[in-house]
Amino acid sequence: MSLVILAVMIAIGGFAYLRVAPGTSAIPMQWSLRGEVNWSAPRTAAFAFVPGLSVAICAIFAASGMIALFAITGSVLLICQIIHILLVRRWAAARQM
Predict the structure, then answer these.
(1) Given CA atoms 94, 49, 47, 8 in this order, what sign does their dihedral have?
(2) Under a CB-based contact definition with an 8 Å cutoff, are residues 47 and 77 in contact?
(3) Which helix (H) or strand (E) holds 20?
């Protein structure tokens, strides 16, 4: 299950890199409560952050013998990744108007 979650995250990150906000070199990573961008990251780092973090967490769980916990943690991180991509899509669409 853990490898499936990681594979899905990597695939979603790759898809987002190719299709979400094309031509934008800096991708928002955090927004204020008013919807303003607080800070951005380079495109590659922005879409690789959650999958990279997940690989590190999975390795830590595997080393400690608690790999089953990654199914829960990985699922939460996958949801966070999807929400981030949806927010970036909305941000990119608003910039084009």
Answers:
(1) negative
(2) no
(3) none
Q: 96 falls in which pLDDT band (50, 70, 90)? A: confident
The per-residue pLDDT for range 72-82, each reduced to its tens digit, is 898 999 999 99
* C-alpha distance from residue 57 to each of 2, 27, 33 (Å): 11, 23, 29
Q: Which two tokens stand for residue 31?
A: 């927004």
Say how far apart CA 58 and CA 69 lie, in whole Å: 9
Helical H segments across the chain, by residue range: 2-19, 43-63, 69-96
> In sequence order, what are the beta bridge partners of 27?
41
Residue 53 burial class via C-beta count within 10 angstroms: exposed 0-12, middle 13-18, buried 19 and up: middle
Looking at residue 38, its pLDDT comes to: 96
